[in-house]
Every structure is written in structure tokens, then in C-alpha cells.
Amino acid sequence: MKYLILITLLMSPLSHADKLYLGAKSYHFDRSKDYNETHKLVMYEREGYVAAYFNNSYDEDTFLLGKRLYYPLTDNLTTSVMVGATYGYRSLRKPGDLSRSRKVLPAVTLSIEYRFGGLLNTLFLGSAVAISPGVEW
User: What is the phi/psi pair of residue 76, to 5°?
Assistant: First the structure.
């Protein structure tokens, strides 16, 4: 299914995207819970605007809309902050509480991105650290 979405994006007028990320691995500092640390992720970015689907740390479908603001350090190394909203988590305080319904919640994520040609390796920093490969064109 994710390949069908990717092919559709690449064939659409949206194919002039700045960046596309597929998949992520994460590490949670809180080791007392059994978090999902391998994430299905499709994230599309154009001119700093981000739309993404991923399965979150509780292994539930989540959608994200946001804006990334970049702060270049060198030609190949950039930091950013992304501010937006997610739908799929259940609470800010108890996001894995299955007795609660899903909500639209705020999202703020810091990242460090390394570029090599058109390839990207991005480290996202939040309540966990996640790494995701991407392409830029």
C-alpha cells in the first residue's frame, strides 16, 4: 500500500516536492513500556510545509500537518523546528490510554538533518529520538 501511495505522489503534480521520507526507527528513553520503535512513515514536504502518515509509538495510525523552520549550520547540516498538529494520539499526558478517543493535538519536533547529494538522513528529537531516510529534489 505504501508503494502505491509513493507511486501516486511521484506521478502527480505534487512530484515537484522538496523532500520525501519513508520509514523511521526510534529509541524511547522511557524503557518501562513496550513502545513501537519501527514506524511505517510517509512524509512529504514542500517549501517547509509537511504532511505525513505514520504509525506512532503506540502502533496506531497518526496523521501530521506542520511547518518546518530551518536553521542551516553548514552546506550539508541543518537544524529545524517543526510546529503543527497530529491526529491519532489519545492525550498529551496519557497518549497510549485506549479508553480515550483520538484527538487533534499540537506537535513540536526538533530535527538535525544531514544531506549527501539528494539523500537525507534526519534525526527527529522529541520524547524519543527517531531517524528517517529521505530524498530531496
Answer: -110, -10
Number of residues assigned to the chain: 137
Q: 3-class SS at 118?
A: coil
Nine-digit cell string for 41: 512513515
**124: number of Cβ within 10 Å:** 20
Contact indicator for 52, 80 with CB cutoff of 8 Å = no
Residue by residue, pLDDT tens for the chain (137 residues) are 555 555 555 555 544 459 999 999 999 998 888 889 999 999 999 999 999 999 998 888 999 999 999 999 999 999 999 999 999 887 666 666 667 788 899 999 999 999 998 899 999 998 899 999 999 98
Q: What is the C-alpha to C-alpha distance for residues 104 and 84, in angstroms, rounded to an integer?
A: 10
CA-to-CA distance for 61 and 50, rounded, in angstroms?
A: 17
- Residues facing residue 62 across a β-bridge: 54
The half-sphere exposure of 48 on its side-chain side, counting CA atoms within 13 A, is 11
Backbone angles phi, psi at 82, to 5 degrees: -115, 130
| CA–CA dist 1, 72 (Å, integer) | 35
